[in-house]
Design brief:
Elements lengths: L3 E4 L9 H14 L22 H17 L3 E4 L2 H15 L2 H12 L11 E3 H9 L1 H7 L8 E5 L4 H5 L4 H10 L3 E2 L18 H17 L4 E4 L2 H9 L1 H8 L6 E3 L1 H8 L5 H4 L12
Parallel strand pairs: 1-2, 2-3, 4-5, 4-6, 6-7
Helix pairs in contact: 1-12, 2-3, 2-4, 5-6, 9-11
Length: about 280
């Protein structure tokens, strides 16, 4: 198995702590060589590219170079950081002029641009490195009696360029978890407009959560830190805006798999750090 760095510098890390805790536990549980990516610059989100493209590319090129020099690939536990790193690598490999400019910028930080590094999503690692057969053998608590609202978000089209939705669906099949169908699965979670209009952001998020709730989801599954923030951290505020109680637990992929693999210690999985209580245990 290859060597990795676990990218933990998520957007608004204090609000996404459960995702990080669960990812660490899952990596340990599966015996994967993926220490924390220390020294990495934090995720900015793909929205930042529209504000300052060169700064965006320099930011993620720094991480790609840092990992490459230590001969480790980058393992991203959620969609936002995965898209940003993979997109930066693709852009720089395809544009000599941009690559030269970013190389010059990194040289001022005493780094020599190096793109010889792979960027993997968690689901890619699980299915391509661990394998479906071994994962299936680890399932102790299948989710046959539950159905989830799997949220992809408005960035899903960009993400599919680097990692197919089918990988997540395969993992859900392994733990026999059904999905509800609802209209808002590919709509905005509101996060990108939050700095400009918190009220609009929460209205967008509340609309999506009501759609999930009204289609009989038992809980929400999201693979993006931004969606996790909107749906878990702000859920009580979304209820006030919607004028209705929602009360849907929000899980990351790592949390879900750990539960399926028989882990029940809420603290070690990160479930005790949620704003909305996890009621599946």
């Amino acid at each position: 198995m290859k060597n990795y760095f676990l990218f933990e510098s998520l957007v608004e890390r204090e609000k996404t702590a459960p995702m990080i805790t669960a990812a660490r536990k899952l990596i340990e549980f599966l015996g994967i060589d993926a220490p924390s990516f220390k020294g990495a610059k934090n995720d900015l989100g793909s929205e930042f590219m529209g504000l300052n493209r060169l700064k965006f590319l320099e930011h993620y090129a720094y991480n790609l170079t840092l990992a490459s020099t230590q001969k480790r690939d980058i393992l991203c536990i959620e969609q936002s950081s995965f898209i940003c790193h993979a997109h930066t690598k693709e852009i720089l490999l395809g544009d000599d002029k941009l690559r030269f400019e970013i190389a010059e910028r990194l040289a001022k930080q005493n780094l020599s641009l190096n793109l010889d590094v792979n960027v993997l999503s968690l689901e890619q690692l699980l299915l391509e490195e661990i394998g479906a057969q071994r994962l299936a053998s680890l399932v102790k608590n299948p989710f046959s009696n539950f159905q989830t609202a799997l949220f992809f978000g408005s960035n899903a089209c960009r993400a599919q360029k680097y990692c197919k939705d089918e990988l997540v669906l395969t993992l859900l099949d392994l733990i026999t978890l059904k999905r509800v169908q609802y209209e808002s699965a590919y709509e905005s979670d509101g996060f990108e407009v939050y700095p400009a209009s918190p009220l609009l952001a929460k209205r967008l998020a509340s609309k999506t959560m009501l759609d999930m709730f009204d289609n009989a989801a038992d809980f929400v599954l999201t693979s993006d830190a931004r969606s996790f923030i909107m749906f878990d951290f702000y859920q009580k505020e979304l209820e006030k805006i919607a004028g209705r109680e929602i009360g849907l637990s929000v899980l990351s992929l790592a949390e879900l798999l750990l539960l399926a693999f028989g882990e029940t210690n809420k603290k070690s999985i990160g479930l005790d750090q949620h704003k909305v209580a996890i009621t599946l245990l």
